[in-house]
């Protein structure tokens, strides 16, 4: 169902009252800064609203060594990035990422866990980072090679993941931050259960739940990749399994995704079947889905379809945005600034979450419209009525 723009404005107006009544001032605004797009906005309103910057990624296998390296090569330095933000902004280093292969060795036994944690601590000391963000995607299975190595061979990682976090927390001490990025989809939560989440929460300062890419090449029906309702359900799962809401960050993806589909109903594309998106034997990408950030040039072959998505896309009943191109049989899914302005205060307020994060800061350059919507949404949550009025005026 399409949500008219006026209805969206009224919805935002209705939720602001109950949200601001219980809003907290200390709302985290966490931004990944990637080696692909090392861009920081010039607007101090945006920069000064960011509480944490996480530099991504350093490979996990760098630390599976006995002798401490004399340097840790990276796309930038903590000191250089620190100069671009206000003095109390936390600058962290993310270890891992999709396809990273070093965590399995790191977690394999007590000695390898101690060695790995010791070398990570050495890197923190050398770089001056304020902490570490662990991006193991994913402990327990469903990694990029899940068709070649079944999850049954990785069940041991579920307990080992908790033990690795404990070892790293011990090495870092309480003065440094330890955080994790965690999956949103139920199928990927092998290591995030009723029994493990309380133990994980005890070790980390916050958990950033990746409530994006919730439609990917392993799916076969059309849905929103960062849908409002799906994001709410993902965050609720962590709370129900023992995570304190204030330790959770809602995830935003500053990019657009597309998927090739079978014939769909133009008015009701959700639930429509996709084309085959991955090789059923190897899990390899078949080129029927991809993404690009707002910083990237729109590929020439997608320009016409993307323009239609931008012009004729719809807000669905939950506030999510999408468009099915009936000529190319292509489904577009992404967050608009309006979606973010409504999603951030609504979900953080209703669920009492501790913050929001995005992948990634430079991906939103040069206009930083989605970042501004994120910051404005946080201001709405805090009760800045002037920001709320400005958001309504844009509608």
Automatic annotation (TrEMBL):
Family: Belongs to the glycosyl hydrolase 18 family. Chitinase class V subfamily.
Superkingdom of the source species: Eukaryota
The keyword Chaperone belongs to this UniProt entry's keyword annotation: no
PROSITE patterns the record matches: GH18_2
Chain ranges of the GH18 domain: 27-395
Protein name (database record): chitinase
One annotated GO molecular function: chitin binding
Any one of the GO CC terms: extracellular region
Record keywords: Hydrolase, Signal
Pfam family, one: Glyco_hydro_18
Signal peptide residue numbers: 1-21
EC number(s) per entry: 3.2.1.14
Any one Gene Ontology BP term: chitin catabolic process
InterPro entries: Chitinase_II/V-like_cat, Chitinase_insertion_sf, GH, Glyco_hydro18_cat, Glycosyl_Hydrlase_18
SMART domains documented for this protein: Glyco_18
Organism: Trichoderma asperellum (strain ATCC 204424 / CBS 433.97 / NBRC 101777)
Keyword set includes Hydrolase: yes
């Amino acid at each position: 169902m399409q949500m008219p723009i006026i209805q969206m404005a009224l919805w935002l107006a209705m939720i602001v009252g109950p949200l601001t009544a219980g809003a907290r001032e200390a709302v985290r605004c966490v931004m990944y800064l990637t080696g692909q797009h090392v861009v920081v906005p010039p607007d101090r309103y945006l920069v000064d609203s960011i509480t944490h910057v996480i530099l991504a990624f350093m490979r996990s296998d760098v630390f599976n060594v006995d002798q401490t390296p004399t340097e840790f090569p990276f796309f930038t330095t903590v000191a250089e990035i620190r100069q671009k933000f206000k003095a109390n902004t936390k600058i962290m280093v993310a270890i891992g990422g999709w396809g990273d292969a070093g965590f399995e060795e790191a977690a394999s036994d007590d000695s390898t866990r101690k060695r790995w944690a010791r070398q990570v601590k050495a890197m923190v000391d050398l770089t001056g980072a304020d902490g570490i963000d662990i991006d193991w995607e994913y402990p327990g299975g469903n990694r990029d090679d899940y068709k070649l190595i079944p999850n049954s061979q990785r069940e041991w990682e579920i307990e080992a993941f908790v033990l690795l976090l404990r070892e790293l927390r011990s090495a870092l001490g309480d003065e440094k931050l330890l955080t994790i990025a965690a999956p949103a989809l139920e199928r990927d939560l092998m290591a995030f259960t009723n029994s493990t989440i309380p133990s994980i929460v005890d070790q980390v300062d916050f958990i950033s739940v990746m409530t994006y890419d919730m439609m990917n090449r392993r799916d076969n029906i059309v849905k929103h990749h960062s849908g409002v309702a799906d994001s709410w359900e993902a965050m609720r799962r962590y709370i129900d399994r023992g995570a304190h809401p204030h330790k959770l960050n809602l995830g935003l993806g500053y990019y657009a995704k597309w998927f090739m589909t079978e014939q769909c109903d133009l008015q009701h594309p959700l639930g429509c079947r996709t084309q085959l998106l991955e090789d059923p034997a190897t899990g390899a990408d078949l080129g029927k889905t991809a993404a690009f950030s707002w910083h990237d040039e729109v590929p020439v072959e997608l320009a016409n379809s993307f323009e239609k998505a931008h012009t004729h896309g719809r807000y669905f009943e939950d506030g999510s945005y999408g468009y099915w191109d009936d000529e190319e049989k292509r489904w577009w899914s992404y967050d608009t600034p309006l979606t973010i302005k409504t999603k951030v205060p609504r979900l953080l307020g209703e669920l009492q979450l501790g913050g929001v994060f995005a992948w990634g800061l430079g991906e939103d350059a040069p206009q930083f419209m989605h970042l501004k919507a994120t910051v404005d949404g946080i201001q709405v949550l805090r009760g800045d009525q002037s920001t709320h009025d400005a958001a309504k005026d844009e509608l």
